[in-house]
Amino acid sequence: MKSTTSVIFGFCMIFIATMAFSGGCSAMSTQILEIKWEWPAGRQMETKLLINIKKISKASKGLFGIGASPSMANALPDATDVSASIESGQENLVGRELSIRIPGMEAQKLKVGEHAAIGLVEGNTIGICVSAAPTADKQELANWFNQWRCE
């Protein structure tokens, strides 16, 4: 009896460790579109999305603030994490959640509960521009988004 309990306990520990290292259930993680921020550097937007801002928070700077060091390759000035839901744009992305870390000067344009447009490149993996929508009116919002250009 004791050895059976030990075996079951061992399998449970292996299962828990496997889930922890693999990121848990993949069904949830496939719904969130993780996007990296880069400056446009002359690139033209490939995809544009209309998003509804759900959360804005200062990015963690890591242990002793090392993640915010300018010498770090991925460091952004005043890095801010933004979560949003995709409301319009590329059909297979509509309805998904989006997560991106952007510079603070770009994030200060955005407000939770409001809409924005974001321009993507490289197979929808990199965001290069973001603009807050000037209106909440559905028809005006649709017109603005149709005419919006990544600038």
Structural notes for this entry:
The protein is an alpha/beta fold. The chain is 26% helix and 31% strand. The protein is built from 4 helices and 6 strands; from the N terminus they run ααββββαββα. It has helices spanning 2-22, 26-29, 104-107, 138-147, and strands spanning 32-37, 47-58, 80-88, 97-102, 115-121, 126-132. It has a 6-stranded mixed beta barrel. The protein is globular and about 70 Å long. The termini are far apart. The model is unreliable at 22-29 and 63-73 (pLDDT under 50).
How many beta-strand elements? 6
Q: What is the oligomer described by this structure?
A: single chain
Mean pLDDT: 81
The DSSP helix count reads 4
Can you give the helix content as a percent range?
25-40%
